[in-house]
Amino acid sequence: MADAPLFDTLTIVGPGLIGSSILRRARQTGTLARHLIAADCSADVLNRVEELGIADEVTASLTEAAAKSDAVILCIPTGAIRPVAEAILPHMKAGSILSDVASVRSTLGPDISALLPDGVSYVPAHPMAGTEYSGPDAGFPTLFEDRWTLLVPPEGTAPEAIATMEKFWQRCGARTRQMTDRYHDQVCAIVSHLPHLLAFSICNTADRLSTDLQTDVLEYAASGFRDFTRVAASDPIMWRDIFLTNKEILLATFKRFEEDAHRMAEAIQNEDVETIMDRLHRGRHVRQGLTKQ
Amino acid sequence: MADAPLFDTLTIVGPGLIGSSILRRARQTGTLARHLIAADCSADVLNRVEELGIADEVTASLTEAAAKSDAVILCIPTGAIRPVAEAILPHMKAGSILSDVASVRSTLGPDISALLPDGVSYVPAHPMAGTEYSGPDAGFPTLFEDRWTLLVPPEGTAPEAIATMEKFWQRCGARTRQMTDRYHDQVCAIVSHLPHLLAFSICNTADRLSTDLQTDVLEYAASGFRDFTRVAASDPIMWRDIFLTNKEILLATFKRFEEDAHRMAEAIQNEDVETIMDRLHRGRHVRQGLTKQ
């Protein structure tokens, strides 16, 4: 027999890539929630969700949706989470769960905890999955499959609420782990935020080339540039928010990287073959560790 | 009717990823050469080529192979091309063609031109294709399909020899274009050499993390880090040679990138939203130009 739905009513605020993937998964499996609400402030987005048929109900009223829901997941840019949470939390039912999918935590945990009404739990989670596309058409039900979702509940969160959200993400196909906000942000600074910063930067470097050379760079982009910059096609607003929210840890990580890259350039300048080979071998070793997983 | 083979006897010096892919293509199509020789100084490599059955003849004597051949393609690290060319050129037949697949040109064109015996042409070409794997097992016959191969013959090369090598690469499935050495090296510095330098460097940064954090970075590597560093699994000796041979242009390109990345970090530091958004939009625009091709 199929598992009963985890929630009666689930609201996804912001049915974009992540949000619409959750809705599709919920529709496909029937084990996440009985009734699905998509809430967004854009009429275009809501119309599109309706056309796609991936929610039972669409609404522009976040507070009404929140009042009816057993769980609300904010799938919106990091910078919008605090104000939206502030607006909807007073309307949420006792026993319900607020979540978000922010890819950077900073002080979100304590900030939102301070706003929680009695009986409402906050169990945010960061699904480490994505593509460079956005919007309700970009989602698909297997987006989270075999990817990590990192649960980052603030200290003191009710264990049952954590267990429920862990089950939720596992039913989305994800592997789950719990960690603190700060550790989460350190891991993400290097596995995701720094690569994005560099990818956007190298595209800027390409943009400064002479027109001829730039055309040819795009024409001949081999796997290096192509793979390297794939993430630079990602949504600018989302990345602005991530960069600013994880500013402190990201810039510390960038500084280390800058030193490493500069030292490599110096070794090339000085034709210091020993240092070059040492760095190439270490780099390769780290990368190979990755493919063994 | 199938096309007649372009050459009677073809020698591939260094049947690794690129070399063995040419051999496999030649075997599969029959239109590149009638008789295939694989030459290498490693007995292990030659044994493996024999086991794979991708050449008609294997030999450790580069000069004997060269003497019998209508075309010799050096598929060896960039740093080895000049000395190997010097050793085999005196043995090559009038009317034959020497080629290589070096991914950086620097002064190779004039250097090798100066060594050419009468009647031997030098038509190097850089197939912009590859994977992070190496060795005779890594090749496959479709490696060059729909990828660019850039022909970089020195000034004054016989047009018939250029036309023959152009046809050769087209029969390998590649799109071809001719350009000068210096322009080639500028394009490759940004589409390939700089991304490799950065990928190796970010792996070095990851290598300096605390053991716990490093383990988790490898564990949770999302698409950013994963795509970004794929190329850092590439062969260190090949990349040492590329970095050193294209030193001047690569370091100039790196310097521009360093400025761009540093300016982006500064904008994040100063929470200069306008600059951040400008750079994210430009970066995305450049990257999107790439996927439209």
TrEMBL record, chains A, B:
<dbReference type="InterPro" id="IPR046826">
    <property type="entry name" value="PDH_N"/>
</dbReference>
<protein>
    <submittedName>
        <fullName>Prephenate dehydrogenase/arogenate dehydrogenase family protein</fullName>
    </submittedName>
</protein>
<dbReference type="InterPro" id="IPR050812">
    <property type="entry name" value="Preph/Arog_dehydrog"/>
</dbReference>
<dbReference type="Pfam" id="PF20463">
    <property type="entry name" value="PDH_C"/>
</dbReference>
<feature type="domain" description="Prephenate/arogenate dehydrogenase">
    <location>
        <begin position="8"/>
        <end position="293"/>
    </location>
</feature>
<dbReference type="InterPro" id="IPR036291">
    <property type="entry name" value="NAD(P)-bd_dom_sf"/>
</dbReference>
<dbReference type="InterPro" id="IPR008927">
    <property type="entry name" value="6-PGluconate_DH-like_C_sf"/>
</dbReference>
<dbReference type="InterPro" id="IPR003099">
    <property type="entry name" value="Prephen_DH"/>
</dbReference>
<dbReference type="Pfam" id="PF02153">
    <property type="entry name" value="PDH_N"/>
</dbReference>
<keyword id="KW-0560">Oxidoreductase</keyword>
<dbReference type="InterPro" id="IPR046825">
    <property type="entry name" value="PDH_C"/>
</dbReference>
